[in-house]
Amino acid sequence: xxxxxxxxxxxxxRGVGPQRAGLLSRLDIRTSLDALYYLPYRYxxxxxxxxxxxxxxEQKETTTGNIVSMDVIRLPRSRHTIFELVISDGTxxxxxxxxxxxYMKRNFKVGQGIILxxxxxRNAYRATGIEMDNPEYEHTDNDADNLVHAxxxxxxxxxxxxxxxxxLRSILxxxxxxxxxxxxxxxxxxxxxxxxxxxxxESLCTTHFPGxxxxxxxxxxxxxSYRRRLCFDELFNLELGIALMRKGATRQRGIAxxxxxxxxxxxxxxxxxxxxxxxxxxxxxxxxDMKKPFPMxxxxxxxxxxxxxIVALMAMLSSVECGYQAALMVPTEIxxxxxxxxxxxxxxxxxxxxxxxxxxxxxxxxxEISSGKTQIxxxxxxxxxxxxxFKKLGLIVIDExxxxxxxxxASLRRKARNPDVLVMTATPIPRTLAMTAYGDLDCxxxxxxxxxxxxxxxxxxxxxxKQCIYxxxxxxxxxxxxxxxxxxxIEESETSDLKSALIGKMALEKIFPDFRVGLLHGKMKxxxxxxxxSSFKSGEIDILVSTTVIEVGVDVPNATLMVIVHAERxxxxxxxxxxxxxGRGSDQSCCLLVAYPPFSEEAERRxxxxxxxxxxxxxxxxxxALRGPGEFFGTKQSGMPDLRVANIxxxxxxxxxxxxxxxxxxxxxxxxxKVPPLKKSVERFWQGKMDLFxxx
Length: 696
Fold this sequence. Notes:
This protein has about 700 residues and is an alpha/beta fold. Among the domains are: about 50-150, CATH 2.40.50.140; about 260-445, Rossmann fold; about 455-615, Rossmann fold. It has 25 helices and 22 strands. The strands form four sheets. The chain has a seven-stranded parallel β-sheet with strand order 12-13-11-14-15-10-16, sandwiched between helices. It has a six-stranded parallel β-sheet with strand order 17-22-21-18-20-19, sandwiched between helices. A five-stranded mixed β-barrel has the order 3-4-5-7-6. A hairpin with a 6-residue loop joins strand 3 (about 60-75) and strand 4.
């Protein structure tokens, strides 16, 4: 083979053919290069070959011997068969069994040397007999260098229906030994030397099929130098793409806003509170970006209750004052409604028009938006649907951005000509994740809470201690404070043993007949939800029983107690968001986590973290470690390329190095014209997504 592995079809690798090529495509293996990067997810150490008499039952063992007999046995009153062979090494006999594979008899001859590897079992019908079911095997008359399935550290791959691990391992062995030598290393040699990283060819070969001296621990945890080299490549490609996007963004022509600050000034005069120093600083950073002649791409991070929304409104008013419209896009209808309810009084008090647009909106204010009569639009993904046109969109604010796909963000941005983009998240993003997920954005952090706020005390209760919880509720209400009680579901279900909000409300009304108990859930109509929240805010409801609709956007300073029922069923980030609904006034607030055992070890860790800290960034780090980056951020839908080798928690140090080198390289060679192999590698890694990100 003398072709580029990226252009060499997997079908032409020995042992594949058209049928297996179809199966491999399910694993996204279509070329030889795909095969080279389809890495093992674990390894088995089969180097320790024992004599048959020393094998331990119920253990995975490897042994060798000569075949003394073999036969295909047909099971009575059944169509099933067992192929059996017996080997001996002079110290004992071992039977290998393969079910419904009579054709395997063709692979062996009596007297032939063989290595078997599998779990050793005692034969139930023979007192002294031991056996292995479906063991891996290798003929010992093979060239010792070509032993693939035994007598070595053996790679184990994720496979697909219709293809065994053994067959896939053989195919990848052939691919590695056929194609690796034709690889061109895309990373400059001086960079590899700087970080003491091995060559690409050596790294791929050794990661697939480690040598006899390899250390199992470093193989398993992905910390050996060969795996680190492959991780570096992936992170380097990622950061080069992000650096290219940032470089490209500075070349685009955008809107150079020049607001006088009249609308923002009028807004601040009417507020019942003063901005914190952190809010003022972040708004200055946003305004400086908006005044530049190229599009703003800025992320606002801040913990629950830090006041991101008012800062975003100030940015939207700055856009409106310059004759442009602003759009606020959020992931759910409930959150859109809450933002609209929170903003419309403020906005309309300034003489401006704001509208709500969601999928279930009966009124479609399309004409008001397209004519420019409505200056601010709050909505869900309905904003990006056909038929919604803006007259002059200048600023897009995206809340909880990690819950949108790139395609959705790009669609909204295409409704205008290079508008400014402001991204908000109340989910604190660990620095390592922000460098990948938001690497093309400038970052602002609102790192202080409004004055008078104190940390929410959090306690964990087993469900059997209900009396303590009832006493806490009673105590708060008698002090003229208010209480949230959050349930995971609205109604009881035959398929679930979860406590429900409807049953919970009825129970609380019986326990506290003198208290006023309200109910809030997602199936209620928007007008009903607003009426309930207004009653709670005005103090007409003492205890609000709710589902997670109160997770974001509800602000009732007099609510000082949060009870979360079935806390073990909620994610760490969600628990933190819910807890953020209390502690919004000057009184000490408390969150009670009510857990129903038995629950998993991971749930126990989540609850322990919640009790231990209220720092959102610390919680985000723990959440990232628990769930992994893919699930934490939703990278599948975010549009970021998949990280198949690197783990940004484990490889945080490597990520920092890759980022530094990538940005320096793009600064000196913006088109990567001096390093064509690296340019090709980056394009292949991003697979066209970079162009999408430029409009995202």
